[in-house]
Amino acid sequence: MKYQNIQPSEGINSSKKNPLPDFLVLLVGSLITIAIVSVFLAYSMGWLAKKIPFEKEVLLTESFEHYFDEVDNAELSTYLNKLVDQLMVCSELPTEMEIKLHYIATDQFNAFATLGGHVFIYKGLLRRLKNENQLAMVLAHEIGHIKHRDPLIGLGRGAVISLAFSMVLGNSPNLLGDAGLLTLLSFSRSMESHSDQNGVEALMRCYGHANGSYQTFELFKTARTELGATKPILAMFETHPLDDDRIEDIKYFAEISNISVAGELTPLPEGFNGWLK
Amino acid sequence: MTAITQFVLLVLLLAIGYAFGRMAEKKHYKRIINEEKEMNVLPAISTRLPPENKIYEQQLVLGSVVVANDYFKFFTASLKSLFGGRLNTYESLLDRGRREAVLRMKRQAQSLNAELVFNVKYVTTNLNGGQKGAMGVLEIFAYGTALTPSHK
What is the ipTM of this complex? Predict the structure, then answer.
């Protein structure tokens, strides 16, 4: 018997083909699949978020609440909380929802709503407001986000996107962490418009007119021009509709809903600016 | 880490994996094929029955290769595993590993002046400890019985 090894032909057990074209097809294919799945999931968040009870959303932020330093400012917080309570009623906020307002004594020109009904308002914004109606518009806008469950939808979308990324990048996802519980959740333009509409309606119910609603965004416009160079502090508003469009949209919405944008303005309480320390 | 840094890192890892992996693979195949041609004079076969025409000294010979995956192979394979199909990038890695292991085994046999290695077997072990998502490190191990003509 003769034993021998004969040189085997190549390309049977393995292919010598360049793997790059195959790789590109796979990459594009998976990106498309992931994109389709994420878009579907992201859109279904709007539907899904409304099925999640508000109390569960509150649980999400409970452990973070000790980070929210309460400013020792009794007069201001009494006033703001009273206004928020009125606006909650005027916004027809479902009774199980509760707004927790936090005042931040820094010069940022900003206000935002986040999970668990927490709304933050900065000194920089309060300082520029001309009357109570404008303040009410800002607050009712943020209450609108809470009412529409926008922070939860934003969180869900963030989680879906970070999941999609981690699928491609191959690392383990830290879903809620990446979506950012305390960071500013970005809302879509349609969310912003709906919240503006909530603001206009709430002003109508509380004050009998919506004077001050669109003027609030004129303040934003002025602030943006002034702060042109230091734009990043306004980053939050970059996803918002352009100021001019937004003002037009508010006027148009008021017109078709038969809400007057003229009426007597309520001044801010005496000494308001003094409270802002 | 931001998404952008992660993305840049990913592209970098892929490029390094592809460039070095591909270069090393080409070089390795060239060397394997040349050595195989030389080593074919010492056949390694898988039969369990030794030839009976002569008296032989019998000796265990082994060839072991530990080989790491590159990121490009890993990434391509994980994408492929979403859809299924032939994992070309792993096939060539294992093919090279097996052939190199046999060559090392044969070299050991050659040093014993053997004229045949029979009952050759292969074992492949994953060394990453079953960690999920970890890149593969493999040991490919070939062993057989070397037959050296007996002068006793």
Answer: 0.74
